[in-house]
Amino acid sequence: MARAAIPPGIRCIQAFSRDSWYRGFTLVLTFLFYSSYHLSRKPISIVKSELHKNCSGAGGHGNTSHHVNDTWCDWAPFDKPNYRMLFGALDNSFLIAYAIGMFFSGIFGERLPLRYYLTVGMLLSGLFTALFGLGFYWNIHSIWYYTIIQIANGLSQTTGWPAVVACVGNWFGKGKRGFIMGIWNSHTSVGNILGSLIAGIFVSSAWGLSFIVPGAIIAAMGIVCFLFLVEYPEDIGCTPPKHHDQKEQEPLLRHGSMEEIFTSPSDVTENGSIVCPGAHTERPSAISFFGALKIPGVVEFSLCLLFAKLVSYTFLFWLPLYISSVAHMNPKAAGDVSTLFDVGGILGGILAGIISDYTGGRATTCCVMLIIAAPMLFVYNYIGKNGLATIIGMLIFCGALVNGPYALITTAVAADLGTHQCLKGNAKALATVTAIIDGTGSIGAALGPLLAGLLSDWNSVFYMLITSDILACLLLSRLVYKEVRGWCGYPMRLRRFKEF
Fold this sequence. Notes:
This protein is 70% helix and 0% strand. The chain is mainly alpha-helical. The chain has a single domain, classed as Up-down Bundle (Growth Hormone, Chain: A), CATH 1.20.1250. The protein is globular. Mean pLDDT is 79; it is low at 61-67, 245-274, 277-283 and 493-500.
């Protein structure tokens, strides 16, 4: 009796090795984990326009005897003229706590099991997100309650980024890192989109659920993390990736590679090998904070991200309110339309990864996108309210240009620097390097929404964003210059290093 051929689906499964399946599984898991982090951050931007809105169109909600007051339908304490300052205070209580906590989070992440660290972080994030929403049902009107919840949530959320990047870095080598991480980094935009849509469902009826549901989702993902995440490939008998080998290192000193561009003369020894100050070469161990700062390129990209993230997070926290104000949309419609900015962010992150992989120019790719973004933000501010088609087009285009560099720096660049050649294959600097870069960026993320709340009009906000993009670009100018020289065939000469 003749046997049937192996089914096509099984043949497809067999075409991938056991290592490939586990790598793909880890990539999907970490994607879902960090999507849930961003999903739980987004509701505050959607709910703002409900906490303070135009009460003349609120119909019969609430006590009609208060209709003589223009703020009768607002949620105290956001019913006062200083409501934008209060929203800015909420944003910054989260973002400042996040920025400060991030510098310590990477240190903890390298010294604690990532599975436990992520699990606890997601459970706490879920708890504090839900507590913010419970203020609706408990009828809480104290700004201090919401501020304290935001501070606690900001600290809890710092567990996410260093841990997921370190985990992905443990499983993946350098091959096509920009493309892979460009796709993977879409979790940020996917989380923002889902958070906007979920919060938008409840915002006009019971805004408390706009926080409680995302809080439950991230807590559930924490349980999934505890059950399934594997930190190192060797823990389950898989082959660990090679971040560098000797064949790769030889041409690094002859051409304009990323390591060469980020390496200063004092980092190169007489025999041409590159050693980072403070790196441990005898056996893998966690690097110190100041040792990570000395890895070439960390400082430049950290400062660039400060301004790039300032722009991105100002949009994250204020875009729905801006759309609602200038385009006269209701809170749900404004929240739904604002997700197009994140759709553009997905496309921009993938495009930046592909271009930087092909050219080898991480810094140049970021710089070009930042240069184009500055005038596009100016154009968006003036024509972005002229009809739905214009709003859609400008949001997608600006989202790609704003989030592309941000995505590339926080993923592929951070992983490249965290597994820099000078570390001799020791990838245990990943969490600390990622935390330094993202922590510095988070200072900008805190400043952006704060300044947006203090500035008197939307034109001033956009001028601030354009200035930040230009400064981010300038901070990469040295690295861009060296990348361009490398492409033009100018070699790095070891004899020059001996002069120092």
